[in-house]
Q: What sequence folds into this?
């Protein structure tokens, strides 16, 4: 599909009293119509920050953004708030972790959706209200006529999520950003929301960016993947292929810590250590303090040289930032070498 969102060399830095927090460093990715891109990482990896920048949800006075973010051809780095306001309602919509934060607590659900539609379409209130009810129906809310007249607190968590998706999609955005859309929900409702996002994508043909730490969710939903670590992309490619055969030691470690990848639960292996402070990134490869493969790289490159993107031999469309020359799955992990 066509590229809707083209992020090039994006860096997002927050100056603080303790120094510069490098939330995102030199991130590049594309989201395409009709495809779902998963941006995967632990908390603090920068996976949410990059999409906040897309929607202009950062505080411009306290954020330094460099690089390029082109949404449907419009450059957003350095754009005025008026551009972001337009973008947020007509070109890109975000589904938040917490629907409470997107829905106004004291306005009826149907009216909120109708007003979002009215703001960008020259139609009557009656037409907008009809559109709101159609949207509620589309996202699988039963009795949408009646439900449209209720307030957010009268909806269950899953229903609020659906209402928020309806609100996000009412102006046919080309990009839907779902940031941990399911973490607050139980497993059954999670699955239903993911199915809904998949179905809506087929119906609207939009691009979806799914931001998550949950690789099971990625396996269900994504076409493409970017794995982030400490504000940088470390592996990208076809989502199913990356999950089946990770090339970067960090991705490999994430997968090893998943129950489904180990027959025997005692073999589950969490990645040792914790992510670095974004105030003080390690030199060389940011992952080196935690990496079980660094002794396979000759010399001290892992400690001293930031790896550039490069293709993985034998894996088409796969890019990693790592000094290893062989895909990680073919190597033995270091024993006791930290
Ligand atoms: Fe590990 Fe070195 Fe690759 Fe970084 S560059 S992931 S430290 S092997
Ligand atoms: Mg987040």
A:
């Amino acid at each position: 599909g066509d590229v809707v969102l083209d992020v090039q060399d994006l860096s997002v830095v927050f100056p603080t009293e303790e120094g510069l927090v490098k939330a995102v460093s030199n991130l590049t990715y594309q989201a395409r119509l009709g495809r779902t891109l998963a941006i995967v990482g632990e908390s603090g990896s920068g996976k949410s920050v990059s999409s906040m920048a897309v929607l202009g949800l950062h505080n411009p006075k306290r954020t330094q953004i460099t690089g390029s973010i082109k949404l449907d051809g419009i450059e957003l780095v350095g754009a005025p708030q008026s551009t972001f306001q337009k973008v947020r309602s007509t070109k890109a919509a975000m589904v938040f972790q917490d629907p409470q934060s997107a829905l106004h607590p004291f306005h009826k659900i149907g009216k909120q959706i109708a007003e979002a539609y009215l703001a960008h379409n020259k139609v009557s209130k009656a037409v907008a209200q009809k559109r709101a009810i159609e949207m509620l129906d589309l996202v699988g809310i039963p009795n949408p006529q009646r439900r449209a007249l209720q307030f957010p607190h009268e909806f269950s968590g899953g229903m609020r999520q659906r209402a928020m998706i309806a609100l996000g999609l009412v102006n046919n955005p080309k990009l839907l950003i779902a940031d941990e859309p399911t973490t607050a929900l139980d497993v059954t409702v999670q699955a239903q929301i993911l199915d809904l996002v998949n179905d809506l994508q087929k119906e609207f043909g939009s691009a979806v960016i799914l931001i998550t730490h949950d690789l099971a969710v990625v396996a269900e939903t994504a076409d493409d993947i970017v794995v982030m670590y400490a504000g940088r992309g470390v592996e990208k490619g076809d989502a199913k292929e990356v999950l089946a055969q990770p090339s970067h030691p960090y991705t490999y470690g994430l997968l090893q810590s998943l129950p489904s990848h180990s027959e025997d639960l005692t073999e589950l292996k969490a990645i040792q250590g914790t992510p670095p402070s974004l105030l003080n990134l390690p030199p060389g490869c940011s992952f080196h303090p935690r990496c079980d493969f660094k002794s396979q790289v000759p010399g001290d490159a892992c400690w001293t040289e930031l790896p550039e993107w490069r293709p993985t031999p034998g894996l088409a469309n796969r890019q990693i930032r790592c000094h290893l020359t062989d895909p990680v799955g073919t190597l033995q992990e270091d024993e006791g070498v930290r």
About this structure: The pocket of iron/sulfur cluster (ligand 1) is lined by residues 249, 285, 287-288, 291, 293-294, 297, 302, 307, 322-324 (CB under 6 Å). Residues 244 and 255 are 9 Å apart (CA to CA).
